[in-house]
Design brief:
The chain is rod-shaped and about 80 Å long. The longest helix has about 35 residues, at about 5-35. The chain has one helix and no strands. The chain is mainly alpha-helical and about 50 residues long.
Amino acid sequence: MDNLTFAITLIVVGMGGTLLTLALFSFLMTILKRLFPAQEEAPPKKTT
């Protein structure tokens, strides 16, 4: 395997791994948002 073939293979595998990781994080964040929905905070009550 010459240097050019190795470099192209490394680029393709590296980008594929990066995109796969980002897709997994996106999926995980979607699941967490459904399990723990954001709640609006009530304005603080005045005690005077």
